[in-house]
Each structure stands twice: as C-alpha cells, then as structure tokens.
Amino acid sequence: MRDPRIIRCTYYIESSIEPSRAAAILAGEQSSGTFVAVPGESEELRTRHAAEVVSVSDLGRCAPALPSRSRPERVSAAEIVVEFPMENVDTDIATLQTTVAGNIFELGELFACQLRRMELPDDFVAAHPGPAYGVEGTRKLIGGATGVLVGTIIKPNVGLREDDFRATVRNLARGAIDLIKDDELMTDPAYLPLETRVRIATEEIRAAEQETGHPTMYAFNITGDLAGLKRRHDLVVEAGGRCVMLNVPTMGLPALRWLRSFSEVPIHGHRAGLAASMRHPGLGVAYQPWQQLARLAGADHLHVSGLGSKFYEEDDQVATNIRALQTPLGTTTDPLPTLSSGQNVRTPELTYSAVGSTDLLMLAGGGIAAHPGGPAAGVRSLRQAWEAAISGQPLDEAATSLQVRGDDALAHALTTFPAGA
Prior knowledge:
With 421 residues, the chain is an alpha/beta fold. It is built from 17 helices and 13 strands.
C-alpha cells in the first residue's frame, strides 16, 4: 500500500548518463543526499527523509533541449517518478516548491527537466483552505449569474487618465457585463492610482446597477510591494469592491496564500510570467502541478489562456488546463477557469466543443471594445455566441435569426472578427 504521506512527482528529464542514475541524482539533490558522503547521513536518516525513484521509463535518444557544461550531440530522454516524504515539507507551500521544483533545474547532468504531474497527500491538501468563493461564490456576487460569465479588460491597458477611465467603466458596466478587470500591467501608477480607480469604478458600477439591475464585479489589481498588500486589499473592500486581482507568478504563491488568509472578496489569479517556467517542454513546471498549488493557496479565478488565442498554447493544452481546474482537489472549492487572449465571438464554439462546460469566465478585450455597436453590443454578441455554441446552432444562422428580430450585435461581431483572421 502506498504511504499516504508521500508527494509523488512525475518529471521529464534528459541526461548524458543512464536515466536511472540521473533520476537518483535528482532525488538525492532534493532530499537527504549530497554528491559526497557526509557525517550524520545515517541509514535511519535516509530511510525517513530520502526521496525514492519508483519508476524510470526510457523515451529514447534525442538532441539535448538545454545547455550545460558539456555539449553532447545526443542524450537519453526519460519520464521518471520520484516520491518525496511529506515529513521533509510538512504543509508549507514554499517548502514544497523548493523540494519538487528547486535546484533540480541547476543539475549539470540534466539537459531537460520539467515537473509534469504531482500527486499530493490528503494531509497536505487538507491543510489549505483553497478558494473561498470559486465558481458558485463568484456567481452569487454577480446576482446569481448563470451560464458562461462574460468579462473584459480595461483597454487601453495603460495610460488612461481619470475621465477616460471613468467613461470606459461606465460604458462597460451599463452593458451589463459580469466582470471588468485591470490589466496585469496596471498596478498603482501616479497618473491613475489604485485609490482613484477604486473610487471611480465603484461609483460607476453602482450607478449602472441602478439602471440595469445587473451587478458587475471589478477585479482591481493589487499586485505590488508585499508590505502594502493588505492595505491595498482593504482599500478595495472598504469602497465596496467585489474582487481583487494578483499577478500570482510575480508575487509568488506564498503571497497568494497570505492574501487568502484575510481577503474578504474573491481573488482573481492572473498568470503573467508563468510561461517563463512552463513554455519550454523540457524545463520548469507544467500547468497541472502549478494550478494545484495556486488553488490550495486560495485563487478563486485562474487564467488558463484561451482556445483560438493569440498566445502559444495549443487548443488541446488549454482544454487540458480547464479540465485540470475542474478536477476535484480534496474538498476544496473549484476555481473559475478564466479564458483570455484574443477571445471573441468565434471562440465560444471552439471552447464548448472542447470542454462541454459553462462554468467559465471569458475575458474579451478587443472582442468587446472593438465591437462597432459599442461595449453593450459586444457583451451581448458574446452571450449570443455562447448560446449558439451550447445549442449547436451555426453562428451565421444564429446571427441571421437575431437580425430578423432586430438585433444585429452578433452579425456585426462576425464581420468585425472574420473567420481565420
């Protein structure tokens, strides 16, 4: 029977030596071993604290993915499974990260190393509260909104002055949008400070709700110096804000975990910077293990990229990211998968056919702001595209049917975002 207090990790590696030897070096480096015997490294200590290589699957020979001190023409690729005693980590997220994804990337014997999957002990998962709101809590704060939630990013993403920012929020909120968010680049600049954005956005959202009856959530970016994180959170909450946003890879998972300990609103988890440790298939940490830690640390919304997007991940990988967030993790609440990057009326069909779920937040920047009928028409066209996708109705047919009834929002969006563009 498998030890219930074991952290099980699957890595892809490339090495110039036998994969089993390389795996043993990795396991030793990340637990009780060293490159030379030292006093105090007893058999009892190794039994309790050494990581164990439990399988090595040879994947053949290939050109090395990464540089190192030596430059062989060919190396051996393998998938290895290593188990780490939870006793080495206890329940601390930062220590876990250091253990399973620390110095392994420095090892000269490895010409590739990526953590691809991770299984966590129940005791570790149970030690963290996970999302406070997730999918259902977010829906409740937006008036019980059903179906796919439609959101957008303030555009232009930086440089707006107060009057233009106010007009942008006003137009979006009056379009009965579900969520508006700061761009990841917008933090607390002197020309439009966070305090000013909070005041203006909450004023305009309250006024719009009186008109539309639809609550809008604004995710204020509170990324910045760690010492000021609680102050910025409190500023949002005291003004009546419904959501804060954190650039998680920039601030770090421990910062997210600390924010979760006092946050009174959902935490919108942005992934800006994550691709630096994920994009190369031979290096870093894949999305599946990263999202587990971000969920345990308390993110209520997590970015997954987007199908048909402008970013690098292929649609199959994005769909896998979404399914990872929808896979139960202990008893924690499921976070809200957040689609972004080039989303428009053409992408709901791709997304629904791939994942078959409406527990999603679709963020469309230009997909809403560039609509010739304005933001309200942009929001409406996205909802109409989702209705067509769910019902299986072709987009052109749905647009024609709506036009006959006097609503040309979807038709104009299809013209604005032609297929294949």
